[in-house]
Amino acid sequence: MGGNQEGTIRIAVAGSNSSQSEAQSALQSALNNPDNLLAQKVNGRQALLAQTKVSLPDAALQGAFEWGKLNMADLKRTVTDAKIRDMDEGRAYPTPAATIPKLPGIGAGYPDYPWYFGTEGAYTAYPMVASGDGWPEGYGMVERGGMGEENSTTPPTPGRL
Prior knowledge:
With 161 residues, the protein is of the alpha+beta class. Helices cover 37% and strands 14% of the residues.
C-alpha cells in the first residue's frame, strides 16, 4: 500500500482437536468471508437479547443483565470425540476408558483453561433458562447437576423456572 492509503488487515486464529487440515480449513473459512461471519454473530446476539426483556430502574444494571446473557451464551459448548480418562489428579495419562462422540454442556475458563462445570452447572442453569438462552442441545438432566427427575431429558421451558 502506498502512503495515505487505507486498507484492512484481517487476522484470524484457528485450531482443531482433530487435524491440522481441519484447522487450516477453519482459518480459510474465517478469512474468506469475515463480514458474513460477523453479521451472523451480531444477528445471533441480537436474537438472544430479544428472547427476554427485563426493565430495570438503573441503566447500568440493565446493561449488566444484558452482558450477562451474552456471556452465558459463551459458556455453552459441544465437544466431539471426548476421551474419558482417569488421570489420577494429573499424575497419569492412561488410554481412554471411553470416548463420547458428542458431549454438550456448560463450560468455563475459555479459552485459557477450559473445563466443564459439574456442580456449578446447577447454578448456571437457572439464569440461562431465565435469560431465555436455554440449555445446550442434548444436555441431559444428570449433566445439569441432578436437578429434577434424574432420568428426564426434557429441559424446562425457556424463561420459566
